[in-house]
Amino acid sequence: MRILDRYLIREMFLTWGAVTLVLLVIMVGNVLARSLSKVTEGSVTPDVLLTLVGIQSINLLVTLIPLGLYIGILLALGRLYRDNEMSVMYACGVGWRDIFRPTVIVGLTGVLLITLLTVFASPWSARLEQQIKADLREKAGVSFLSAGKFIEFSGGETVFFTQNITAAGTQFNRVFMLRERHDKPAVDVARVANYQFDPVTGDEYLVFTDGETTVGTPGESDYAITRFKRQGVLRPRSDVSELRLKTKSMSFKQLLASGGLREKAEFQWRLSIPLAALILAILAVPLSYTSPREGRFAKIAFAIIIYIPYANLLVLCRKWIASGALPSWVGLWPVHMLMLVLIAYLLTRRLGWHWISRSTT
């Protein structure tokens, strides 16, 4: 490998890594903030918080690596134009093929990383996330409860409130619970509630003491009030069908074996992401051209304007395939073809119609 190639590859790798790291830190910060809000709401326990953030970080890399590669190559080559290094290279006989060669090497490295993520890491992390969330649903509800806060369960169908909790964490004082009973809202109010677990059946109960239950639809006169000394409420079990693998959790083999539209859309998506990374890397070469007066970041806004429709069209076509509006054999290839046409147009505008032959001389 020539010294020039090593120099260009090093510049691209360093800038790509820096851009990807900055984007990842920003996105992980947003994920962490959302996860912390779920902890305060009681839908996620603190012991699995960092695990879920790490899992979602793996999924973020699938989209951040192509974007970081795109911006990184753009900035690296833009700096060479700004410092007149590219002008010196052209004066020494360096052609466009000499610029594309290291770019393709860096782009193929990105393709390899994204392929490893989409084939192995991303489905594995999706299955792990699904399992963790299923375990959280099956976990004792008492671990989510917090004094002085309204905690929702089962997607908001059950709401629980307690004024304070004993040190053991199994007795709740001054409790309120809203739930469904006979297809009508039921409100339980009690002085004390105790958590009980049946090790034989695995059932979980809340046993209310000294309270009353009101059953009826708000605003209607048809309601019933029942006062009780002791009353037990069984915690409903999660539906086993919820544990079925989602499309993003499936392997390539499972996606191919399934004939569903959602699976076909997911398969097309996993093929398209590595290809999109290589196309973006090549697109960054003609976009990176800037005059010395324009500065290193002159083309960033234009590059983002191109990237956003490209990414959105890929997502849109994926949804169309999943819904049946777009045939699966068409896939996401038309979007990639549009980007290749754009690359050819930019090179033609920059070098003229004979850029292919001139780049090989």
Characterization of this structure:
The chain is of the alpha+beta class and 361 residues long. The chain is built from nine helices and six strands. The protein has helices at residues 3-41, 49-82, 85-91, 96-138, 252-257, 261-287, 300-323, 333-351, 355-359, and strands at residues 151-153, 158-165, 171-181, 184-197, 204-216, 223-234. It is elongated, with a radius of gyration of 29 Å. The relative contact order is 0.11. Mean pLDDT is 84; it is low at 239-243.
Key terms:
alpha+beta, 6-stranded antiparallel beta sheet, 6 strands, 9 helices, single chain, 361 residues, 57% helix
What are the SSEs and their pairings?
Elements: H1 3-41, H2 49-82, H3 85-91, H4 96-138, E1 151-153, E2 158-165, E3 171-181, E4 184-197, E5 204-216, E6 223-234, H5 252-257, H6 261-287, H7 300-323, H8 333-351, H9 355-359
Antiparallel strand pairs: 1-2, 2-3, 3-4, 4-5, 5-6
Helix pairs in contact: 1-2, 1-4, 2-4, 2-6, 4-6, 6-7, 6-8
